Amino acid sequence: MFLRELKLQAQALAAALQFLTRFPVPVNVAFHGPVLSRSVVYFPVAGMLLGACLYGFAWLFSLFVPAWPSAVLMVGLWTALSGGLHLDGLMDTADGVLSHRSRDRMLEIMKDSRVGAMGVLAAVLLLMLKASLLAELLSNGLSASDGCMLMILPIWSRAWMSAAIAQWPFARVGEGIAVLFNEVKGVHAVAAMLLAAISSTVILVLAGHGLKASLLWLLAFVIVTTSVGGGLAAWLNRKLGGLTGDTYGAMNEMIEAMLLLVVVIWLHAQ
Fold it and tell me: Per the UniProt record, which residue ranges are transmembrane (predicted)?
């Protein structure tokens, strides 16, 4: 029994990495309910590994490259590490929801592989915002206490995806994401959020923030993530009658951008 559960957890971790990143994970994963429901618990781990890569490259770029070119390179890397999955979701969601059509028509537009004007506009604005915020973060060099924030942002955006999968209904019942993750329960989302909280606190403390400051940062991450994510999820649920894989990607991108905005505002004010 223990060995079976251990194997399921290992497969769940591999599934999370294969699903959310482009890291090479040479494991044949059985993509079925028990594995995929557990995989959402490890979404923050995928985010942490992605964030660690961002931090490492940001530090490297800051040694040789000016802030703005570094920021543009970072945005490209940020997108590439996830295979553009979440950015594609943002564009599809913008095309569908901002078309102001009927629910069925919006869902149909979101499935269309072609990108419309609203999708392009949403992507350009988001990438410009991320690049400008990263440039500000890199403008005075990159200390460990500041750079660790790049590790933490992807943790929370992906933890929220776990919560959204568990909390809101699927817009397309019987297909796509709804089939893959139909066994996800609230306990899986709670575990993902706890893992995000613990890992974030450890990273902050190791980066030189005191325990009190780390807990205050943790509170800020929780408030921003749940406010932005909850507001978007509720709005999209009203528009579409549920959530889709595209909307999870859109929420991921928006949460990352808003968390980065809060971090830069706070660090700039000090």
Answer: 39-61, 68-87, 115-135, 186-208, 215-236, 248-269
